């Protein structure tokens, strides 16, 4: 009987490692699905673990301990990746994210900032086992004693029962549109396996029905015969400033009486301002914003646009403006190879790019030279371009306010109240205050040199800076203090759009809903350049008041933004949730299944159109 005690059973690797993996399953559950069922992770998580462990018992009895340790490490890495990816993107990572591995060393500061110390507990046993295997002879001898084949019938029965349970979980949730719910109902390991299977089954989409008319019908828009402001800035320069991680709440906001963005606040008194403007990026973040803004196409279903579409010849704003007599250039202080931008800029058709090689490595802030250096050296190049006699299109990508927002002490200009100090929210405000300071210097130079009055200026945020999933309770309270309501998806995804247009002197706040795909058609109208025969998924915000913006990545598939708020599906449409712009989350009210279907079809149309494009030379 003593052999049948707890010690006997725990000495069985199958039992011992099952308990270890169960703890890791529940760690992931508390991080990702804190309010979900307590029984579901047990029902969906352990059977997938047992499938692996049964195979070890069956196929590797002589190297049992080492194989268990290796399998445990692999599954641990999958759960750890799921936790870390969720903390920033709010979705479950799949194998598609392996494309990002090359970017990890560049953004290690961001990764470390998301890493709560208790997340590392997931690796404690792995480290202990590796050390014992390397340095303990007794442990290795114990491992040899475990090289006993368990009854094959038992292993086969456990394998079959576990596999059937896994297949049942996958089958039951296979049609769920919401990847987060799908992963919860399937179990994370089952979801990862299903992602591989689903991708293998995908077929090449048909692009023959993708036309401007079909897109306009899905979006529910009708272009006016005589558009407002058409050609009001014809022949003017175009300067597009993409501000890193800039959210809309920063504008006209004060912390204990001190403005966060005084320069931009002054700018609002002389420009067109769109407060209901939203990001449309995904896995590629900043590079995705460059893609969407310059093409008015939608991001790919999995990877970053710069990596998935970098070898294509994309119809774009740089190409269209070049065909209308413009010089084109893009400016970014990081290495052009980061996020495959060298290929992206060729795909977009920019005439020239300026990266770290041009800006140098002086006055470094996070990934490259400071915004002050960016603006100063770009001004010199813009003046040079203006002397050519041709108008120019220049896009500037700022970077000093990059996550995790810990700028050098000599750049700090904002005195944080004590309650904000040492928080992600406080660091974010400090970094964005510096970004506004540098931008104010650039605006002054543009006005001083005359470039301001001869250019359409576009300013917008590339993506949100404060993911809901990354904020602790105190930081959420700080955001509630700022908004006077809970910080939700409509606040998180809300970025500003500001337009300074020669010929439009009266400032206006325009409250229609817009997204990054709308910048290209809006600018084209101002410059008097037709997009009638070019496929684009945005719309001219100065001539349309209703919008439908499909979303990916930061929200589950099937999510979209309309004129009332943000809709996020459940397993399908009917059990989804609407997040009104200024209200409390509720069940479906101001959305329709027709909008849901049209949003999904727009994504499919964009995917099929882009995949049909030829490759560039």
What does this structure look like?
The protein contains 23 helices and 18 strands. With 617 residues, it is α/β, with parallel strands linked by helices. The chain folds into two domains: 200 residues, no CATH class; 310 residues, Alkaline Phosphatase, subunit A. The strands form four sheets. Strands 1, 4, 5, 6, 9, 10, 11, 12 and 13 form a nine-stranded mixed beta sheet that branches. The protein has a five-stranded antiparallel beta sheet with strand order 14-15-16-17-18, covered by helices on one side. Strands 2-3 form a two-stranded antiparallel sheet. Helix 2 runs parallel beside helix 4 and helix 8 packs antiparallel against helix 9.
Layout of helices and strands, plus pairs?
Elements: H1 6-10, H2 13-32, H3 40-59, H4 64-89, H5 108-114, H6 124-135, H7 137-145, H8 152-173, H9 179-186, H10 188-201, H11 212-219, E1 237-243, E2 254-255, E3 258-259, H12 262-267, E4 272-278, H13 286-295, H14 305-308, H15 317-323, E5 327-332, H16 341-348, E6 352-354, H17 356-359, E7 364-365, E8 368-369, H18 371-386, E9 392-397, H19 424-449, E10 455-461, H20 473-483, H21 489-492, E11 494-500, E12 508-509, E13 514-515, H22 519-527, E14 549-550, E15 560-561, E16 565-568, E17 577-580, E18 586-587, H23 593-611
Parallel strand pairs: 1-9, 1-10, 4-12, 4-13, 5-6, 5-9
Antiparallel strand pairs: 2-3, 4-11, 7-8, 10-11, 14-15, 15-16, 16-17, 17-18
Helix pairs in contact: 2-3, 2-4, 3-4, 3-8, 8-9, 9-10, 18-19
Outline:
The protein is an alpha/beta fold. 45% of the residues lie in helices and 11% in strands.
